[in-house]
Structure formats: C-alpha cells, structure tokens
Known about the structure:
The chain is α+β, with helices and mostly antiparallel strands. α1 (about 5-25) runs antiparallel to α2 (about 35-50) and α20 packs antiparallel against α21 (about 590-615). Zinc ion binds near residues 334, 415 and 439.
Amino acid sequence: MTPAEAQQRIAQLRADVARHDERYYRQAKPEITDFAYDGLKRELAELEAEFPLFATADSPTQRVGDDRVQGFREVAHRQKMLSLDNTYSEEEVRAFHTRMVRLLGTEDLHYTVEPKIDGLAVSLTYEQGRFVRAVTRGTGDKGDDVTANVRTIASLPRELKKVRGTVMPDVVEIRGEIYLTAAEFERINAERAAAGEELYANPRNTAAGTIKQLDAAEVARRKLSIVLYSLGHCEPAVVTTQARLHERLKAWGLPHVERIWHALGIDEVWASIGELDALRRSFAYGTDGAVVKLDDMALQREVGATDKAPRWAIAYKYKPDTARTRLKAITIQVGKTGILSPVAELEPVFLAGSTIARATLHNEEEIRRKDIRVGDLVEIEKAGEVIPAVLRSFPEERLPGAPEFDLPAAVGHKCPVCGGKIAKLAVADEEAQGVAWKCQNYDCSAQRTGRLGFFCSRKALAIDGVGGVVAEKLVELGHVQDPPDLYDVAQETLATLNLGTAEKPRVFGEKNAAKVVAAREAARALPLEKWLYALSVPDVGETTARELGRRHRNFTELADSALLRAVLQKAGLAAERELQAPSSRKNPAKSDEDRARRKELCVRLDAEIAGLDAGPLAGVPSDIGPAVAASVVEFFASVPGKRLLAKLQQLGIDPQGTVVAAGVFTGKTFVLTGTLPTMKREEAEQKILAAGGKVSGSVSKKTSYVLAGAEAGSKLDKARELGVPVIDETEFQRLLGR
Ligand SMILES: [Zn+2]
C-alpha cells in the first residue's frame, strides 16, 4: 500500500467508524455487528501504526466512544472512565502477559478473569453508603446524568450494607453495566410483535436506548437490570485487590457478576477464558468476552493507563456464532402503520442451538448497502437471544445477472397484503426514522391486524390474549375491522375461534374467551390518554397521548380541539411572521415605507403569538407541535376517524380526560409572595399546578392572582399598582373548592 492509498483508506475508516459510533453509542441502533466493527477499528489501528505520519490524536482509535445525547445534564467523573482494549486472538492475550512481565519484572502474576458484559457502561456514586448519582461513560471524563432512570432498577440498593469491621467510603464510584435480561427482552419484543411494531434487534441496544429516554416512568416500564464489577474513585481506599473488590461488592449488597476466576500466570488465564465461555450462556446478562485484569491494585497503578484504556487489563472477545446459507427469497411484512419491511427467507441452517429459516434485513437501504440479492450465499449471525441477522453476502460467488433488490418492484408496486397503493414517505415514529415504503390503505388487513394487536397490548388497553394469530384470525374472518369492533365479538364466537386450519383446528377456548371479555369490559373505564394511544392515531405516541389526554375532557372535545386549532394558528402566524420580517431573505423589504409597514405588522403578529402562548397554549409542551396537531385534527375529520368515534359512541364508551382536578385554575397564573399561615410554598404551588394553573415568579398584567402571606414584599405593591387581585390562603382554599 502506498502512503497515499493508506491516507485515503485511513480517512475512509475513520468516517466509517465515526458513523458506526454514532449509531452504537448515541442512537443505540448499530448497523453492523461488534465483530465487524472491531475489524474496522483494528484495520485502522494497524494502518496508523504502519503509517504513523497519518496517526492523529483525534482518531477513534485514541478515544473512547462517546455516548452522550441531548437532554441530560453532564457530570464529570471523579476518576476517568476508560474502556478496554480488546482482541479476538489468543496470541494477543499471551502478549499482554508478556508485557506485564516486562513492566513488573516478575513472572509470578495473579490475574482475575471476569465475564465481559454486553450492556451499557455506567458509573454509580455512593456517598456515605447512599446512592446519589448514575452517569454514563460519555467521553470518559464526563457523561450523562441518568440517575432518575437508574433509580427505576429494582435490584439496585439505595444504601450499601454496612460490612462489619470495615470502613464505609465517604465517596465511591462503582462501575458496571446496565442490561436487559433475555426474558425481559423477549417480553418487550413479544409485546411489540403483538402490537405489530418493529422488533428490537438485541437486548444491549434496547437497554442502551431505554436508559437514554428522558421519561423515567417510561424507563420503569422496561425492567432494566444492573451488574457491578469495578471501582473508580474511592475515598478512602477500601480494597487492595480486584478479587477482594468483588467480595466487597457482594457484601455491600450490590448486584455482582456470577463468577470470577483467579489465575496465576497466562496458562491459567487462558484455561479460565475457556471455562467462562462454557458457562456464560447461563448468565442473566449477555456476555461477549472475558476481561483479564491484574489482581493487585498496587500493580495496576504501577502499570498505569493510556488516555483510553488501562494497561493492566485486556478484553478477549468470543467470536459470534455465524453460519452461511442461501437466501431463497426476500418477503415483505406490513406493520400496523403500513410500513413494508423486508425479511430474509433462508435455506434452514442450524446455528447457536436452533434452526434458522428467517432473518431480519431491517430496511431497503441496508439491503442495498450490504449488496444482498436473492439467491446469494449469505452469512448470518445469531448471538444469544438476538434475532438472527444477515451480516453480509458474497458477491464474488453470485451467478451473473442476479438483479439488485428493488422493494417496490418486488411487491409489484402495491401492498403485498391488500394490493393497495404504496408510497415512499418520511417516517418518524418511535422506531423507524427516515423514509420507508408504506401501504396507503387504512383498511389493509395487515394494518387492521397490527392495530388490533396494538389496541390490546399491555401498553394500550391490556386486553391480554388478542395478539398475533388471534388478531389475525379476527380480522381475516371479518369479525373486526377497527379495533373497537372487538366489543361486538360474542364470547361464544371468541371461544370457538379456530386459530389453526380447517384440517388441524385449534380453538381459542372458553377460558381465554372469558378473560378477553372481562378485560375488554375493564378497559371501558380507562382514561382518554390510553384510548387515544390505543387507537393508533398517526403521530400520537405514548407521551403525546398523555399530554393530549390531560388537556381534553373526552374524544368529542379532542376531535374539535380548540387547543390544537391554536397550535396550528400559532404555526401559521409564525410562518407569516417569518415571511413579513423586513430582513426576510425570501421576501426582502422593497422600500423604507414597506419596511416600516412590515415592522408594524410583525409587532402585531408577535402580540398575537404571545396572546396564544399566554392563553390557550399556556403550559402546552413542545410534544404537541403543528405536525401532531395537524395529524390529530385530520385523523378525526377523516372517514376512518369519524367511523371510530361513531363506534365508540355506539358502544357507550366515553373515556374521560385526566384534566387535572377539573382544572379550576386552568388558564390562571399565580404569583406567590410571603409566608402562608399553614401551607408551605411548594405545597401551594403543587395545588395550583394540579388544578391546571401556572406559577410565575413576577407580577405582570397577565397575573391572575397574587397569593400573599405574611411579610409579603414588593410583589404585593406591584400587584396593587397593576390592579391584580391579591388573595390570602383562606380565599385560595375557597377557590380550590374547599
Ligand atoms: Zn396494505
């Protein structure tokens, strides 16, 4: 390779690694396996070593992957949080030992061998034994504060157990990994499958994606787990060896690794790595390797670390299980929102304990990038409980003339289920981002089935038992078109529903039918937010549904929502404001007169916008933007939307919004000043918020009431000056309705 070629390849590799880092660390949606990724990084490191001229300090080989995302507070680690050098080769593990021997001048070295957990690295801080903070690795120096989310982990103690005869450190950083158990991962995916949603690829990315959610209540719904295994800053020091650390973690009552191995010398290390490989599939967490560490912490300090990784440890990674087989066909599945997703139909092959005949291909773009064509020999991978994925094709073994995969052509430019029109549209739901082909027919039976499954899922109305094949049969036999039609299906019909075939019948059964009937009756009482979410209104995710449910009393009010109209009106005004701005590039002012006129117009538009913000839009979160507002308004004005509302009315189902405390203070702004006789300030604020009101720090003409107590200050004077009503606690209580 010439230096010029090397330089070009290095640039390419850096760009690739950066792209994969972004997907892995920030979006938690990697496109390639760890093995393939490690291969790219290795090639880069080797080229940089061979051509040191092109090595730079900002190369991805020189820093840890950055997992920080927007929306979290950044916190510095007391002790830098490093990653580990890793290898797939025995030789390099042995070379690691040789290095230690050289650096420390003795052959007699003790190591620990520990499972390498495939989760999301996190650092917990305990002060005087109390849990105070959880921070992701981030840049290694500072990471995202995910304390609220980590608090949802049930197995994590808030307080460390006292260990007799030992000192509790004043401050200790304990490092470990957040993960999802295989069972929880399966539960989440089963729920998604029942709901017709795209399945998550593997537990690691699902865990990483979950911890980066901003809503802790949402996080709590997915039962994350944690396991701890190493120490950061510790004051005062409490242990002197890695093995003792594991004992202490256990004694403190922290979730700890299943087993560690003590090894003297490299042969014992290598034997332990083999033993761990034989055991690791029985662990609750996914593992992808073994970590070898110098046991003695004094020696660890002596050996030190680079900017990126400690020199006293190395990770050996096991190769994932892969197999080669033939791609027989690519079929297309249609989800509840009509998204067409490709699935690989394979020549069945035995891999990692099961026979595999189908694998995920994610989307059209990925098929093109990996150059996968029908008839190809492909390599598939299955790691643990992960859904099998197609890794790569072998174009060199392809018969000439095999065409590129063309999704719309493959389905004859129509929905493979209903024959309806398809279109390539922007998708931005919880799962897919970007563009995808979608079936445009709302009454597509695949979409009907998906919506019915979703309607009954735990996250929606929790009518257990009506997912997958049950939903499919109910739609296929014409019992259900729209999800609420489920209420019209007689218990007897459900009980005798044939889930099998005419030749091999298999009925749903009395017991299951009775359960469904009980659950659907119970669901009648669920609030508006649940029903709205359950009905799969476009663009309405769980958070949006909750926000809308809190601001509308029922479907009738929502369908003709003054709030949503105001959102759209504001968007219109803002667009007009932009166009009329004298400095507008699209529409520059033509004369001084024009400029002056438009300036005046902008002032008026600003005032109108401010009026909306203070009035109908007060306290409305950004989740409810113009796109959502337009979707909701359009949906309830559309034929399917009207049909759904009419059906609910016919069924006597009238879900109520959780409009806070009947909203006695909705649209009212309070300013608090002075000390109230019986109520704490926070308490009063809580009550105002709970009743739909707002609390502001300063008095203006827009203030509805000043709630004043003893020793009220200048705010009281200001209120009198502006003629704002001033009330005391008794009056406040009376307004609240006591
Ligand atoms: Zn369709």
